[in-house]
Amino acid sequence: MLTGIDYFVVISYLIGMLLLGLYFRKFVHSSTDFFLGGRMLPFWAIGMSIVVSDIGAIDFVGIAGQSYRYGISVGNFDWIGSVPAMLLAAFIFIPCFWKSRLYTIPEYLGRRYNDGVRTIASLTWIVFFAFDLGIIFWASAVLLKSLMGWPHWVSIIATATVVGLYTFCGGLTAVIMTDVVQMIIMFVGGGAVVFLGFFKVGGWSGLVEKISAMGPAYQDHFNLILPVDTKTPFPWTGILFGLTFVMANAYMIGNQAIVQRCFSAKNEWHAKASMIFAAFLKMLIPILVLFPGLIAIVLHPQLEDGDQALPTLISTLLPPGLGGLMFAAFLAGLMSSIDSVLNSTATLWTKDIYEKFIRKGASDKHYLMVGRVATIVLLTIGVITSPVSDLFPGIYVAVQTFLSFFQGPIFSILLLGIFWRRTTQWGGLAGLVGGMMSSGLMYWFKESLFTIEDPFLYVSWWSFVAGFSITIVVSLFTRSHPVSRLYGLVYRLKQPQAEGTA
Amino acid sequence: MDEQNELADKGRTENRMGQINRALGLFICFFSAVVLVSIFLTETFVGKMTNLVAGLIFAVIGIIMVVKSKAKS
Amino acid sequence: MKTILNFEWLKWISDDAAKNIFLVLFVLIGILVWLLPKDYIYEGLENPRWWHNLKLWATGVLAMIFVTYLIF
Predict the structure, then answer these.
(1) How far is CA A223 from CA A41, A68, A208, A243, A484, in A?
(2) B3: Cβ–Cβ under 8 A, 6 or more apart, which residues?
(3) Which of A12, A51, A204, A221 is most buried, with most CB under 10 Å away?
């Protein structure tokens, strides 16, 4: 399917990424350089990196497939499911985190609540990321095999080698800067598919006209707001309460892989600006991932599986050169997801577990070495465990479900921690554990509790409510930290300046 | 003294960003050349134009990054 | 219990009214952004220019999402 020039594009891309990563080694002299890019990065690079880390190779195909089946309501995840949360993060949470000179989100929880909350949060993320790595590898390898006919192990080993080397050598600087290139390639490659697709279907008006004429099954394909009793997993109530109020915030504020990038900003303004710039780019993402699904409805209406929409468009629309570019864009999506997971997990492990419980007070060079070794160990675990996904097909859903257990409760204690100074350490701990247990129970009894098949949006909302309520109740009955301990950890709570220094 | 250190830090950061931008810019320029060459291997007019536009977008971004990097370092 | 958990108590709200809820949310966020103190927005900058005003950036993004939800 690929021509010679396409292979040349792909191989150039892989070698280029490798060389760039190796080049960035010269900027890593300390653990701050490795984990936080030396705290010197500009907003535009961080913003691009946030967006591209969020879109994996599987998302490209999966979202196009969902838009083929359900229409543009899938775009809610990138629009209302991102933008408000990113603004909240940019103006409230990120400045507070950045000023505290944090490495990890659990580190904030440790300072605001106690080490128990920090360790539970950190271990949960580490376990999730470690499992997720193998799943990303395998799902992407399956995708690349169906698209390009590459054997599973070729794509796994090739991407693991390139990503592993540049993440090991260049740390977060390499991760963010290679993400910049990857985003440009994704936008140009994805943009080309959309441009050629629109050319074929007669532009936007042609697309709307043709899909609307296809009958009642397609009547909701151009509606973002779907009724409460919709057959799709996206009723507006789930979108508003589960996605907008909880999952999006938990993702943009509580996800180490996303927020760690903002910690690398060169000053507070750049940290805030990076999130808002990312929100702007996020608004454009559905054009690349959602429109191909709609275009495929017109050009290939008889597809049995919606996930074949994008691969079919690529094979029928793209000229030589751009086919390779699109393949490079898939690899870019895959690599950016993996490098984020690797660097974030190495940071969580080194800062929240190793430095806290295994070896305190070692030299900076030692922690730099631990971070690098953790990167390689994680990558090896990811590669070795990747075939597990093939042996247990339900594991992908299980791991995603595990994350949704955690999202609502973690956001509830972050929100109360930053806005309500009366929140206590025991309130936070009880809210986190109680919220997670409530998620588990809701999933256990989901058949008898929920009417839609996959109620993850509703579970997120109600587990948030549970975590929020438990935290408040327990906080009211326990003693809070002295105010002096909360300076810089609660919004707009500043240490009063000593007399004579004002 | 603090002010001097701050200025030196700022200079180092600018210099580092300059070097990073140059490396990224050169890579994107190389990528643009590859996409532009593939115009000659494309049969349809629309395909040729798409490759041309994509290649030019890469070229513009790459050149801007290289030029900006020179200004910084 | 099922009625509460599945938001069936909000069934009476029409799709158009739901759309208006989303639009009001964007306006509300915009108002909150503009209520932030000016010096807080520029913190970290030595010589702020007009285009450093992140309230303008946020308003731009909110305008884009508002129009998107208004149309669809």
Answers:
(1) 39, 13, 12, 17, 51
(2) none
(3) A51
As given in the structure block, the two tokens for residue A7 are: 């292979």
Percentage of residues in chain A having pLDDT higher than 70: 97
Residues lower than pLDDT 70 in chain A:
1-2, 147, 392-397, 400, 497-502
pLDDT at C24: 96
Nearest 5°: the CA angle A266, A183, A200 is 150
> Which of A9, A173, A319 shows the shortest C-beta gap to B50?
A319
Q: What are the residues facing A41 on neighbouring strands? A: A265
B7-37 pLDDT tens trace: 677 777 778 888 888 999 998 998 889 888 8
User: What long-range pairs does C12-19 form, CB within 8 A, spacing at least 24?
Assistant: C13/A228, C15/A223, C15/A225, C15/A226, C15/A227, C15/A236, C18/A225, C18/A236, C18/A240, C19/A224, C19/A225, C19/C69
Q: How far is CA A284 from the centre of its chain?
A: 16
Q: How far is CA A380 from CA A130, A189, A383, in A?
A: 10, 30, 5
Output the average pLDDT for chain B: 83
pLDDT tens digits for range A341-361? 999 999 999 999 999 999 998
- In chain A, the residue whose alpha carbon lies closest to the alpha carbon of B38 is A321
Which of B10, B14, B20, B69 to mutate to test binding with chain A, by most A CBs within 10 Å of its CB? B20
User: How far A438 CA sits from the closest chain B CA (Å)?
Assistant: 47
B16:A27 CB<8 A: yes
Residue in chain B nearest A199 by alpha carbon? B46
Q: Does C37 touch chain A (CB under 8 A)?
A: no
Q: What is the pLDDT of residues A170-188, one digit of tens each?
A: 899 988 988 898 888 888 8
Say which of C42, C54, C64 has its CB closest to residue A283.
Answer: C64
Interface confidence (ipTM) of the complex:
0.94
Q: Do C57 and A87 touch (CB under 8 A)?
A: no
Residue A28: closest C-alpha in chain B: B16
Would you mind telling me the total number of residues written for chain A in this entry? 502
